[in-house]
Amino acid sequence: MSIDKLPGPASDTKSRLRIGIRYYQFALLFLTLVVSFILRTIPSVAIISMTAKTPPDASVPTYPEWDNTDIVLSSFFWGYIIPQIGAGQLGEHFGPKWFLFGTMVIGSIFSIAIPPMAAAFGSTGVIVCRVIQGLNQGFLYPSIHNLLSRWSPFSERARVSNIVYSGASIGIALAMPITGTISESKLGWPIAFYSIGGLGVAWALVFAIFVENSPASHKRVTQEELRYIQEKNAVEYGTTKKVPTPWVSIVTSMPVWAILVAACAQCLGAFTLVSEMPSYLNGVMDYDIRSNSLLSAVPYIAHAIAGVLVSPLADQLISKNIVSITSVRKIFGALAMYVPGAALIWLAFVDSTQKELAIVLLVVAVAFTALVLCGFMVNMIDVAPNHTGTIVGMAYGTSNVFSLLGPIIVSWFGTDKTDTILWRNVYLLVAGVYVACGTFYAVFASAEVQSWNDLEEKSDSS
């Protein structure tokens, strides 16, 4: 944990050495992503047990007749893409805290509802629950971005963003072995949904108590820390006037388009892998569910570690003026797509006799996407801090169409998950998208605060 060395009188040692309240907020946001992604990821592993012909115990229900598992896995994104832009706008105007609280509570309740809905309505019941969960989690990233833009000084932004967003990888990495272990036990897969749903409700209460919308609204923030954050942040403070959204400027901005394109590639690749990796390891590499879930978690552990390791490098490159902020964003953003693309091209030609190589390539493909945390992810805050929620909403609303397509693309190429040609086509297609979109981002991205971000300028021109 970093020590917050804030400006102040030399004699005020306690004030200068205290840990800044902003770091507690970042920790809470990190844990919120952990819990949210555990909730999101459960079905990717549980679906194997849910559709197994032989349950671990006679009391555990299974549905081997389901032939639409790819649709079940993609249904989360049917709801997820809908509220993104509106979520960003609402967060900017009313503050994101209570939207995040609602996201966690409702998403957790519908996790608990999945087993009885499956029993009553089959796969359709699960799809309904997943659509509602996705609809709620549409508020997740716009709200997290909004809070980061309010709480993070420029000099800490890349490092803090990486740490907070690594919560997604940690959540996936935890969800897979936990779900696999519970599903394979006599407790059965329903307990995974019940227990993790209960955890989500409990965490929502903790979040509601300790998180605040901005430094100015937090009772324990010192004046020194408040001044330090506000002086090193382009978000408008000290005004109740709402910053008008410059829609024409946003939709005609090439740096914004670079973010959108990079986000589309990232979502297609990331959610194809997170949704389908357990099926690939089970169908092609013939791993049982316990080994499968543990191995599926390894790439996401590597992703979290990579995110934490690269962020200090990005900050050092910027703080020591070795390269510009824009160059850092372009380099990290492009590598986050070129390297996974190369790994997937290689993986497309790996067969079941090369299990260790397949795991290594999956680790590389997932781990290197962590570089987007120093690329387009933090770039969404760079270009227009006053409109972060709107830009994040646009990026995720657009890109999560591709998240939805990930599992569906697999079904386009066939339904036999043991077919290596099916997976070859999937991986080559995703690799091509990575390379094309990485190139677009490298050409058009920028970390400069855009002129239309500024409140006074916008007000004067209106």
Secondary structure class reads: mainly alpha
**Biggest sheet character:** none
Number of strands: 0
How much β-strand is present in the residues?
A: under 5%
> Can you write the helix and strand succession as a string?
HHHHHHHHHHHHHHHHHHH
Number of distinct helices: 19
Terminal residue distance? 45 Å
Helix content bin: over 70%
Globally, the shape reads: globular
Poorly predicted ranges? 1-17, 236-240, 457-462
Output mean pLDDT. 85
**Rg estimate, integer Å:** 22 Å
Please describe the structure with a list of short key phrases separated by commas or semicolons.
single chain; 462 residues; mainly alpha; 19 helices; 73% helix; disordered N terminus
Describe the protein.
- Helices cover 73% and strands 0% of the residues.
- The protein has helices spanning 13-17, 21-50, 69-80, 84-94, 97-121, 123-137, 140-151, 157-184, 189-210, 223-231, 247-251, 254-283, 289-319, 325-347, 355-367, 376-382, 388-412, 420-444, 455-461.
- Mean pLDDT is 85; it is low at 1-17, 236-240 and 457-462.
